[in-house]
Amino acid sequence: MKKYLVGLLCNNLAPINYYNLAEDLSIELIKFTRSGIDWEKQEIKGIMFNSGKWEEKVTRFPDSIYNRCYTSSTVTTDKLEKVIGSGKVFNSFTRFDKYKVYSILKESGLEDLMLPTYQYTREHLLSMLHEEGTVLMKPVKGAMGHKILRFTFQSNEYKVYIQTFYSVKIIKSADDLIIFIDKQCTPEKYIIQPFISFASIDGHVFDMRMLVQKNKKGVWNITADMSRVAYRNFFITNLTYDVLRIHEVFENAGFDKTILLELRDISIRVAEILEEKLCFLGEISVDFGIESNGKLRIIEVNGKPEKTVFGRISDEALQKVFITPLEYAAYLAEN
User: Fold this and answer.
1) What does the alpha-carbon distance between residue 212 and residue 315 come to, in Å, rounded to a whole number?
2) 98-114+198-304 maps to which CATH number?
3) What contacts 168, CB < 8 A, 6 or more positions away?
4) From CA 108, how far away is CA 15, in angstroms rounded?
5) Partners of 225 in the β-ladder
6) Which CATH number describes the domain made up of 4-90?
7) How far apart are CA 51 and CA 58, in angstroms?
8) Which residues form the ATP-grasp domain (predicted)?
């Protein structure tokens, strides 16, 4: 049986045990970095999994490539695609711009699911605060929950919370608030959203993540789902108290489990839209919140989903989320 050569374009050459599963597929797997590409010789220097261990290896250019770099640039992937063929490199870029994603989905019929999102200006922040009372500021490009700021305006003073309600800073004037923001971050690289109190279990806010990946037939599918449960009095779930399957959370919170079907349909639709409007993709994750009345909201879409957390669901789930993109890469190599 012919074995196709699949490339993993990564930021480093550290072995990843979960990719050992590639030996069960009809592929050879070469993990490499940008510096391992010899454009003149059209060779790749990296590490290859062989007979139970990763070894240094120099190979020809792969038949297909799975981009695992966290980047907003397509320079390298575009250049690789010119060599190995159109449509042979997926996840062209993985660091999504939240405002651009919001704008695309809003214009594609999903506006009712989106959190209203605005590019930061001083005037817009203060106007929203005075009208809404509470707003969030997030980096426009992913930061894994870091540097998310929550502001409230009440009794002519401003309160600032970073990740948790335990820590609060009180600021007396709008000018001092803006000075504080300028010291904390580069506000021009932030977005503003109204703060919505999503459903919780015993005081623990939770979200819902759908992992959408193309399978061995090149079709978008939901590979796994999970719910991240935040620590009590935290308003973000990145610092995770517990990880459960979504149907378990729905049972505990009193929601109808049939909503899970709606989550699946929406997530696949999001993947299809973003691939059409952004770049050639093979996987994304879609994070949802649910209001107490059952209304769904898309919180965020990730172009480089964190997979190891699915190990808290089961070993089977963890293996599946790592092997599925390799199966898709094999499909691309063959077709």
Assistant:
1) 18
2) 3.30.470.20
3) 159, 160, 161
4) 40
5) 210
6) 3.40.50.20
7) 17
8) 107-334
Task: Give the pairing type, strands 89-90 and 220-230.
Answer: unpaired
Domain ranges across the chain: 4-90, 98-114+198-304, 118-194
pLDDT above 70 (res 221): yes
* Amino acid (one-letter) located at 146: H
**Residue 64, amino acid:** S
Q: How far apart are CA 244 and CA 313, in angstroms?
A: 6
| Nearest alpha carbon to residue 225 among 298, 282, 283, 310 | 310
Cross-strand partners of 17? none
Q: In the β-sheet with 220-230, what is the strand arrangement from edge to edge?
A: 240-244, 220-230, 208-214, 283-290, 296-302
> pLDDT tens digits, residue range 236-254?
777 778 889 999 988 888 8
Distance, in Å, from the CA atom of 62 to the CA atom of 84, rounded to the nearest integer, reads 7
Residue 53 neighbours by CB distance under 10 Å: 10
What are the structure tokens assigned to 301, written together? 């879409």
Furthest-apart CA pair in the chain: how many Å? 73
What the block records as the tokens of 197 is: 């109190």
Which residue's entry shows tokens 């490499």? 32
- Within 8 A by CB and 6+ apart from 122, the residues are 178, 187
Distances (CA, A) of 304 to 162, 216, 318: 24, 19, 15
pLDDT tens digits, 88-127: 999 999 999 999 999 999 999 999 999 999 999 999 999 9
Question: Interior CA angle at 230 toward 224 and 236, to 5°?
Answer: 95
Cβ neighbours for 218, distance < 8 A, ≥ 6 positions apart? 328, 331, 332, 335
The secondary element (H helix, E strand) that includes residue 272 is helix 259-277
In contact, 213 and 307? CB cutoff 8 Å? no
**Nearest-CA neighbor of 228 among 257, 248, 254?**
248
Is residue 66 within 8 A of residue 90, CB to CB? The reply is yes
Return the pLDDT at 231. Answer: 79
Query: Cα–Cα distance between 139 and 204 in angstroms, integer?
Result: 24
Angle, helices 122-132 vs 174-184, to 10°: value is 120
